[in-house]
From TrEMBL:
The protein's name: Low temperature requirement protein A
Organism: Streptomyces sanyensis
Keywords, sorted A to Z: Membrane, Transmembrane, Transmembrane helix
Membrane spanning stretches: 54-75, 87-106, 112-130, 146-163, 169-188, 200-220, 232-250, 271-299, 311-333, 340-358, 364-381
InterPro entries in alphabetical order: Low_temperature_requirement_A
Record bears the keyword DNA-binding: no
Alphabetized PANTHER family for the sequence: BLL5714 PROTEIN
């Protein structure tokens, strides 16, 4: 429900808007590997996950998500559908598929495959960015940037495959932190072309559809495995919850992003897109992944007296994380904190209270309360929009 206000007084006007673009067929094919990756993560949170399960899967999700964001930005800046780019994207799919297959044991026996898969994606990213270093480019990218950011980290991740299994997660955390420090220190320097806002918003929206789709699939397969009236009732309530999230996201979050990023100057637009589409949507999407796992468990355990505590945290914590990420996006867009608090405080607090008190509630009641929160969130946003709250955005 994050929606921005009008630009601040004296803010620089945006440059000419680039021509409209949509996702290409290779990008849509590329996204299919993330269907598998998201399914692996959701499977790891199914049942009664503990705190370590949440932490490990959250950590394993970031490199894959970050590579998706990097490749999406490269496709956004360089509208090329030639054989070289297609081959690069196909190789990226293979490397990411290896990472997805390694997820269940990535902190153990399959850690080397996970690390080498991510190293391979860095080489793909280098191939996508290297043509932008040519002197014939209007704003050529200095070669040291892709060499350090892509090749340098490919070498380091390859080396991490040889680290003892007990050390790998710590080594990967250091490498991710170093990569983020390098990226943040650049502040958008070296970006050769304007960001195509519509294309970027569409690509992120398509990824949100992927994780929502995993949630629907989890509900359907759990209902198939537990063919009872109780399971059917929980499945219907789960679908209402997911439908409310879809409705509010694509009515408000996407509109806000197009308006605010589209109004910004080239470098400002890139940094804003990086923060919102890259960093903050990592939490938006993981929240839905956790919710997918929790809904599957809730359907399967519909006949029980209560849900396992891990499933309650997947449900309530996932929805709370989703709302918290949108509150952070709204702040990044410049919305006043007091206006955000009106919907963010109940949006975060109510699911957390349900997670804490859920052991005393039947599974159907847990899902009903979460669905009611999501529907109430949507109704509030729609009423605010109809009252003219969004008029200043146009």
């Amino acid at each position: 429900m994050s929606t921005p206000g009008p630009p601040a007084a004296g803010a620089p006007a945006a440059g000419p808007a680039p021509a409209a673009r949509h996702a290409g067929w290779i990008e849509l094919f590329f996204d299919l590997v993330f269907v598998a990756f998201v399914a692996q993560l959701a499977h790891g949170l199914h049942g009664d996950p503990g705190a370590r399960d949440f932490a490990v899967l959250l950590a394993l999700y970031f490199p894959a998500w970050w590579m998706w964001a990097n490749i999406t930005v490269a496709a956004n800046l360089f509208a090329d559908d030639g054989p070289r780019r297609r081959l690069a994207m196909l190789f990226a799919m293979l490397f990411l598929a290896a990472m997805a297959a390694a997820v269940p044991e990535a902190d153990g026996d399959r850690g080397a495959a996970y690390a080498l898969g991510y190293a391979g994606t860095r080489l793909v990213l280098l191939a996508l960015w290297w043509p932008a270093t040519r002197a014939t480019e209007r704003r050529p990218v200095p070669r040291r940037r892709p060499l350090a950011y892509c090749l340098g980290f490919a070498v380091l991740w390859t080396a991490s495959a040889a680290a003892p299994a007990s050390w790998r997660l710590a080594v990967w955390a250091v490498l991710v932190a170093a990569e983020m420090a390098l990226l943040l220190s650049s502040r958008g320097a070296g970006i050769p072309r304007p960001v195509h806002t519509g294309h970027l918003v569409e690509r992120v929206g398509l990824f949100v559809i992927i994780v929502l789709g995993e949630s629907v699939l989890s509900v359907v397969t759990a209902t198939d495995a537990t063919w009872t009236a109780e399971a059917g009732a929980v499945a219907v309530l789960g679908f209402v919850l997911l439908a409310a999230l879809w409705w509010s996201y694509f009515d408000f979050a996407t509109t806000a992003a197009e308006l605010v990023i589209g109004r910004s100057r080239m470098r400002d637009a890139y940094v804003l897109a990086r923060d919102v589409a890259g960093f903050l949507h990592y939490f938006v999407t993981f929240g839905i992944i956790a919710l997918a796992a929790g809904l599957g468990t809730a359907v399967e355990d519909a006949g029980h007296e209560h849900l396992p505590q891990g499933a309650l945290w997947a449900l309530g914590g996932g929805l709370a994380l989703y709302h918290a990420a949108h509150a952070a996006i709204a702040l990044r867009f410049g919305r006043p904190p007091r206006r955000i608090a009106v919907w963010a405080v109940p949006g975060i607090g109510v699911p957390l209270l349900i997670a804490l008190a859920g052991r005393a509630l039947a599974p159907w009641l847990v899902v009903l309360l979460l669905a009611a929160e999501a529907v109430g969130h949507l109704v509030y946003a729609e009423r605010r929009a109809r009252s003219g709250w969004a008029a200043s955005l146009r």
